[in-house]
Amino acid sequence: MEEEDQQKILDLVKELVNRLLSQNPKPPTCNPNPNPNPNCPDFQNSLRYAFRILSSRLTPSIAPDAAAIAESIKRGLATKGKSSQALTLAELYNKFASKTGPGSINNKWAVLYLLKIISEDKKNAQNAPNSTLLLPNLGLNELDLSNESRISRDFKRREKGYDNGVLLVSKDPENLLEIAFREFVNLVKEENEVSEEVLVRDVLYVCQGIDGKYVKFDANVDGYVLSDSIKVPRATRVMVRKLCELGWLFRKVKGYISDIMGRFPAEDVGTVGQAFCAALQDELSDYYRLLAVLEAQAMNPIPLVSESTSSVNYLSLRRLSIWFAEPTVKMRLMAVLVDKCRVLRGGAMAGAIHLHARHGDPLVHEFMRSLLQHVCSPLFEMVRSWVLEGELEDIFAEFFVVGQPVKAESLWREGYRLHAGMLPSFISQPLAQRILRTGKSINFLRVCCDDRGWADTATEAAAAAGTTTRRGSLGYGETDALETLVVEAAKRIDKHLLDVMYTRYKFKEHCLAIKRYLLLGQGDFVQYLMDIVGQELSEPANTISSFQMAGLLESAIRSSNAQYDDPDILDRLRVKMLPHGTGDRGWDVFSLEYDARVPLDTVFTESVMARYLRIFNFLWKLRRVEHALIGAWKTMKPNCITSHSFTKLQHAVKLQLLSTLRRCQVIWNQMNHFVTNLQYYIMFEVLEVSWSNFSNEMEVAKDLDDLLAAHDKYLHSIVEKSLLGERSHSLYKSLFVLFDLILRFRSHADRLCEGIYELQARTRASSLSSQDNSKSRRQTRDDPSEPGSWFSDGRKALEQRAGEFLQNMGRELEEISKEYTVLLEGFLSQLPVQQHVDLKFLFFRLDFTEFYSRLRPGT
Fold first, then answer.
1. Do the Cβ atoms of 314 and 293 come closer than 8 Å?
2. What is the reported pLDDT for 267?
3. What is the per-residue pLDDT across 317-335, written as a single tens digit (0 to 9) for each?
4. Which residues contact 647 (CB under 8 A, 6 or more apart)?
5. What does each C-alpha distance from 778 to 762, 763, 769, 796 come to in angstroms?
6. Cis (ω within 30 of 0) for the bond into 38?
7. What distances in angstroms separate CA 775 from CA 778, 785, 798, one per listed residue?
8. Per residue in 450-479, is it b (16+ CB within 10 Å) or e — as a string?
9. pLDDT class of 618 with cuts at 50, 70, 90
10. Is 466 helix (H, G, I), strand (E, B) or coil?
11. C-alpha angle 358/360/362, rounded to 5°?
């Protein structure tokens, strides 16, 4: 700048100061005139003050917009009610802004901004004693600026309310800033026994788990501490303690990793634990890189406040706290996970870590997601291998599917199960059940069915789900893809399994065969079998040969429509003689069994076949009772009493005979009515209805579990409706007492008929010629009859013995009738209170005409 321009600027500044002082309501003390003297001390101080402002580097906090500043000043005037001044300002600004070219001001907004802040300071200094209060920030009345004078003046300034901030100036002719900085450095050195560079270096050591020179680990407080004997400010001590938290967290995480990796491959570590340690180690590697950068910066000395720091990367405690903000969050989270997972493994560990991923902080969420991708990698690989290959690669017992060695027939029910403790929270219970069933289906096909078609099915499922069968195709965060893969695989493999069961192993045909033979649905076969084994089964149980019974079974098959069944089905039907006790007859120990081989024995297990055996024994007893009543009816033909042989008997004996036969016939009709309706109910309302429902459920079954559930429901329905359930135990006992009474009636009916036949023979013999009678009497003496027969001692003796026999039989039949009535009423009285609705329907069938209800008027 030329000397002429400098002089011009100096003159302009003097004129500006002169005008400002002349407008001061309190004129300077040196000159009471409106125009101040240039040699006056107040004028000189104000001029010096103006030059310091102009030579300073004031940086406004607003954008350099002249129009905006002018508009702000104008708005302030209008707000205070000075509209005329606002209009004058607008006119002057328009002239000021329109003037361009030589002699004009380029930086117009700076001039306006300067005038604005001077005006604001002027308002604040209206009550000030001198012109230096125009800007109270920089008081220049006193040339001797010692430390004490500055402090006292600053205190007085605060009392007067001047707290508008500090204007930093770039030029300090009196080196005040340098003096202040020097004093500050000396003060810091007096208060700190250890420099900040040394503390920073110690903190960096601590963050690597190494004790520093002054900051060391204290086991008593379980943390890093700065010795109390070291003289540092309290703020510095607090800062060091906060920064050392990162080192304490690092020590915990590093110790966990070392402990786990030192014990691997222990069973309590597992692959998931190893993956967790690897993920933590990866995070620590990034942490180590950060520490390396910080250590490089820590080599640079910390500059003084007065020194320029724009081109030097140094590290202070405050800067270190900013650098450590994000690593501390991550390390704190890793330490929490370490404490949580110390006693966990496998799926339980993955689930516990997943719970901490539900966080609103994006940094924490992304960190946990990256960590879980490493941790869950072995777990998802186990799922993929189990669902697509049926392989349980779990040597450390980490998977939520647990297998155990069992026999082939127990593979489906007992071979595999869910371990709820190892089920991670991001896999739902229904999805886990489907995963279990899919892998179990593959193993069932491979082990029990000797089938390999599932491999192609698994490949198709992976393609349909949009993934592959390769390792690593699934990972954390892909739960939807996992569920899609499991659903597709389960759908195809379950369908293939049912096709194998229905087509190759003919499951439906075997179920029908069990119904026809064990549940006595093949009528002609059952009737013929009863006819040919009845005589043998009437013998004591210990005298019956199972080989002979097997031969009779084979004869019954060849003599009925059963001979046209599949030979494989007939080969499975066998005779089984139950354990017998003293006094047991063949009827009590005879039964049929069906040999269900692999894989059918998965459905027809030993317990299931035991229930079938119980149903068979019940139905066999019912058929035996029916067969006994049919046999009694055959011996009680009505034409036996119309024989001419009885016309010569006394009228009283004949009436007694007819009465006894009629009583026997009435009892037979009552028993036959009961047995017929009971058998109809069992065969049609129970067996056929249950079979129909079972057939429908077999058609809609989607997997083997559905098939097993349908069969269990079918078997349970038969047991409950057939009075074999636990809730019908008393009813079942009453029914079997009735069966025993009916069989006892059959023996009495046989005795009665045998006696009548013998009486008929004796009566016919008495009408022969005397020669023939003599001959007959000799034969009778030589060959005594069985107990209950009569000797030919003459007609009178014959009629007497016949009367006694008929009287005894009538009395016994009457006792049987009364006992039967009591037992039947007791049985019927229990039916209405049964919980199963079909048992109530049985009561309706038995008492359709309300005959038994009328016998019990109190009910």
1. no
2. 64
3. 999 999 999 999 999 999 9
4. none
5. 14, 16, 14, 18
6. no
7. 5, 16, 17
8. ebeebbebbeebbeebebebeeebbbbebe
9. very high
10. coil
11. 105
